Amino acid sequence: MNAASLPDTIRDGEHLDDLLSEPSEGVIETMRRMKGDLLVLGVGGKMGPSLARMARRACTAAGVQRRIAGVSRFRVPSGCGGLEAQLGAWGIETLRCDLLDKEELNRLPDFPNVMFMAGMKFGSTGQEAMTWAMNGYLPGMVCEKFRHSRIVAFGTGNVYPLTPIGLGGSVETDAPGPVGEYAMSCLGRERIIEHYSRTLDIPAAILRLNYAVAIRYGVLADVARLVWQERPVSLAMGVANVIWQADANAMALQAFDHAASPPFVVNIAGPEQVSIRRAAEQFGALMGKTPVFEGEERPNALLSNGQLGHRLFGYPSVPVQQMIQWIAGWVMRGGEDLNKPTHFEVRDGKF
After folding, report:
1. Is a pLDDT exceeding 90 seen at residue 78?
2. Is the CB of residue 212 less than 8 Å from the CB of residue 47?
3. What is the mean pLDDT of residues 139-165?
């Protein structure tokens, strides 16, 4: 996808799904080089379906035959049963499994390439034990089960501390400084994967994502709905990184080319530091609304520097201004909302 081919509006969910799963040339080449089949653990999440479909479309474009399977419990409400059928229609095999059940996990077939997307964030406050189980314990189980595989694992930029805005965001070599139990559990996920990568010689990559946007959810979608509903927009976290979900998926799939022991670590983030105030004002202008703000901007924020990922995987294809235009139209038309706020404004790590 390039700027010249981007549509002015996103018509409906089918159109959105097509855009989110369109593979870049880089992904097509990665799928051409990849040896063996691909398993997506946690395919039922926000990014899983489009990532799995992107891999399938890239294989078709590359002219290679490859089994692509997605694992989930497929028991979550809001149409997860429909998701199984949809994935099947896209040529993706589905496997039901409660990943925390060791017997079920060990019954999964072996795959030479594993995309590990399962984890917990939303609602982690009050469910700290489950958060640690999903983010800290499960990665060890997955590494033991798939010890002969190449593993790419989704993580988060929340492992970094808040940094001065003028620094341009944390880079991969900066020391972690997680704030709150959720972020600490995510650093735990990284450390466990690193341990097994080193001791079992598992080629691995860890993706520190911050933040994906796909119209139905994401930082910009949160801001847009607050403006549309004339509710206050918090300025507690005055700037944020955003990246179009398809660009994040493309970078994630290309990370298989860089999996190593010890793990390769890369930030997945957009190039801009997006001002929340300015984004709200842009939404207001498009929606005919006057944004209402609460709080004031601080001199620091949770920010990631995505330059390494851009150099290795390509510059993001969808600019922020285009995302804002798409989201404004979607919200005003009453488009679907996943109702999974990012809580980007949280500064104490309590999600």
Report:
1. no
2. yes
3. 97
3-state SS assignment for residue 312: helix
Torsion, Cα of 281, 283, 286, 287 (10° steps):
-110
CA distance 211 to 223: 13
| pLDDT of residue 75 exceeding 90 | no
- Measured CA to CA, the distance from residue 228 to residue 327 in angstroms comes to 11
Q: Where are the domains of the chain?
A: 7-214+243-270
> Against a cut of 0.70, is the pTM above it?
yes
According to CATH, what is the number of the domain 7-214+243-270? 3.40.50.720
Distance CA 342, CA 146 (A): 31
Nearest-Å Rg of the Cα atoms of the chain is: 19
Cβ burial 204-213 (10 Å sphere, 16+ → b, else e): bbbbbbbbbb
Indicate whether 247 pLDDT > 70: yes
Q: Are 316 and 244 in contact (CB under 8 A)?
A: yes
